[in-house]
Amino acid sequence: MPKWLVKLKGEKFDLEDFPSLLQSPELSVIEENGSYYLQSSKFNTLASADEVFQRGLELIERVNGAAKLYIDNFHDVAVDEVTHIEDDGRKSHHNVLQIDNIMQRQKVSPVTLTASNGSQPAVNQHSLLESCVHLSQKFKQVAVALHFYHEDSWVNLYKVYETIRDDISEDDFKGDDILINNGWVSRSELRRFKRTAQSKEALGDQARHASKTYTPPDVPMSHSETKSLVKSILMKWLATKSDKP
User: Fold this and answer.
1) Rounded to an integer, what distance in angstroms lies between the CA atom of residue 149 and that of residue 167?
2) N or C, which terminus of the chain has less Cβ within 10 Å?
3) Which of 179, 100, 172, 167 shows the shortest CA–CA distance to 140?
4) Which of 61-70, 93-102, 130-139, 148-157 has the weakest average pLDDT?
């Protein structure tokens, strides 16, 4: 049966772990002669390289977001080319230009996922990453959150927060109140984060607003603090999604 492969481009530092981390029929990565290829059962129903390319972009975007959540020092990987393999082994290639971004990094230990009930089950990176990508296919808002999370600008981190806040909002409670009542963030830290993100005085062009009416807190939140805060909220929210059938 003919099949599609999507060649991935990025640093070996990031790509070399994917074959062991992604192994499901819906999403797997194989290594051949030093190159890495994305495979998916989702490709089987697609008729053209353009469709496979677009589907590959969607999947890799989610993988990038999930990998940044669970793997420190991870950098995005990209779709390099799409390959169609005929039954007789003939291959046709469809190239896409990508840009490299190289810097020195070190691998560190993976994070531990905490369930919504506070427990910390013994899970490995393989199950964490695949579970997160699976949730993005099951829940649209998870895909949206990972879409924004893979780029950690102030605006995108704020959009991750907004996505989660709106998803958990109920008729009788505002999303912010639920975040606080769930113990995912303190009221003071949430207010400090929001005021910093909205203030041009604090962030300049990175701020969500240009109006001087948005004043910064006495001690604006740093970018690294914001990444840690949003990551913590995101992981706790994902744990609640994992609890759902």
Assistant:
1) 16
2) C
3) 167
4) 93-102
